[in-house]
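Hi support team,

I submitted a single chain yesterday and got back a structure, but I'm not sure I'm reading the token output correctly. Could someone confirm the output below corresponds to the sequence I sent? I've pasted both exactly as they appear in my results page.

Thanks,
R.
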Amino acid sequence: MASVLYRLGHLSFRHRRLVLAAWLAAIAAVVCCAVTLGGAGKLDDTFTIPGSQSQQALDRMQQDFPAASGTSAQIVFTAPAGHKLTEPAEQAAIRTALAAARQAPQVAGVIPPSASGAVSPDQSTAIAQVQYRVKTDQLGSDSLHRLSSSVQGAREAGLGVEVGGAAFGSGGAKPGAGDLIGVAVAVLVLALTFGSLLSAGMPLLSAAFGVAAGLGGVLALTGALTISSTALTLALMIALAVGIDYALFIVTRHRSQLAQGTSPAESAALAVGTAGSAVVFAGLTVVIAMAGLSVVGIPFLTVMGLCAAGSVLIAVAVAVTLLPALLGFAGHRLAPRPGSRTARREQSIADAGEGSTADRPANWGERWIRGAVRRPLLTVLVVAAALGALAWPAASLTLALPDNGSAAAGSSQRLAYDEVTRAFGPGFNGPLLVLADTGGSPDPSAAVTRIDTTVRAMPGVAAVATAGVSPATHTALIQVVPTTAPSAQATKDLVNRIRDDAGTLRQTTGAAVAVTGNTAVGIDVSAKLSAALLPFAAVVVGLSLVLLLLVFRSLVVPVKAAAGFLLSVAATFGAVVGVFQWGHLGGLIGADGSGPIASFLPIIVMAVLFGLAMDYEVFLVSRMRESYVHTGRPLAAVHAGARHAARVVTAAAVIMFSVFAAFVSTDSMILKQIAFSLAVGILIDAFVIRMTFVPAVLALAGRWAWWLPRWLDRLLPRLDIEGESLHPAEPEEERPAVEISQAKH
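Hi R., thanks for writing in. Yes, this is the structure output for that exact sequence:
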């Protein structure tokens, strides 16, 4: 692979104008497609799970009860202190507000509190139901805003009025100006790393091309596929982070070679063949992991994974084609100035590769790793204990699809949700729908009554009401209000209890019963994702073992990497639970700790962190292995690897952390949780695992860290990730004994 990438880098450098023109044309094409075929206005945040009982019943309900097939909203009225909503003035204000609400765009009807009975026992709070003709994704851009504005008169009359409900969802993920904070931090880190604004601009410019192409492609597909705003923003976040990081690795190698006198053309080709090989390897692992989300069988998760995978694939393509072309335009100007601090550092690193480093000052990365390997067993035990303690809250992880209870604090839908919970109970925010097919019943009316009575007697039921009957299709719709919140375990138990009794009800009434509604769909999605989590984790860990076994031809390295990955993921989940479920320090990032974790977060975070962890693992450990092969001294190899790679890995991790952390400021709780998870995960994996745990394990294992049975070494194919084929072979008498021995084996 290294030789192929070397030739590709050389070709891109030589034909840089043609390569740049091709990328500009490609971006122009995808932007045109995005404008004509798709666009942000076609994003759809609806969650579906084809084949599940809840989804099948929901589809049937939309056919049999078309009036109820659209989305709905709630208008929550609250009386002023010392008053009741039954007083004449309050009643008049409610009637006026509901009359205005009926005139809002796309509204099919409004059910006043007096008709539905949705009035609190103390008559201080009431709920009006607004039914739309269309689903949430088909609402006009101003429909919800017009509904909110229509009830302004009731507010002016002194009533508390909040508008929420399913139509508002929990807020889509919308990129904002605050997300650029990560880019600003990246500029600063790159400038400090390279000591040159021109060099710092190379990764940013190539990342901008990748982001433009990736997001343009995603938006172009919104006209044909159901793509959520979260999928779009996740693709943006990952494309920006990996685009900068991948280019950073290649530009660093390029400048180091320029400092040693290599010509720009040869240096660019070598950088793509060596560092670019690690980039391709790491990028493909992210692509495989993200594309692997499609095996779960949930459409919105499949699309989310494929969008992210496509963005990463484009970032890799940019790094190995466009970036060497940009390096060609820069020419010799990227070389560190003679006598500058950067030039002295690069020369020191080059000299360190030729002999002992004992008489040379260690850089920050080497000093850190030397401290970690001074007492390697203690370091391993301390890291394992610390991450284990941080992971402990993960045992309480509660997964559910987001609802208005996780919307931004202070938003209208969140205030409506909280007011309904206070006045009526949490179950009113997520009622269940029981669809009864009475076609096989001799007495449909009696069957519906029997189902109503049976469900009403179940524990955890607050109220039951028949929402509609369709004689033509022999179906009835029964609304069941739980006593607990939509994400509560007791609500899940109630759904399972109704489903378990469906067989008995069919025998006694002849009616087939299915549980549906947004709450039931969310429960089914969470259950399917939870069931897929452990198998997916096993596949990811197994894949890491195989890939690293092929790359490093060692047993200890892949096992150590897999153990470190599991530690970092577990600690990340523990931090997420502590902040978003328990509320520790949540106020700092706008999380009040009142809601569950998004059900698809663990599997997405595992997929992303897996690829990024492999990136740092290959870049850091390959330098250590290269030094060991040349010197045969395991501890000195760890030090040398730190000297070569620690500064770049640190810069890459800080950049990626900053990009992810910038998205934590979003109002979308889904994206806030994902961004926080990835930021914390990168911080732990890069600094605690790769820069501390990994060197300590390698130092503890000594020569055994690089051992592989001879029979296995003969069976495994050789992957040239480190670019060994690009370097001239040394005479055998000049090579260390360890390298000669390995070559003969």
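A quick pointer for reading it: The chain has a mean pLDDT of 85. Let us know if anything else looks off.

Best,
Support desk
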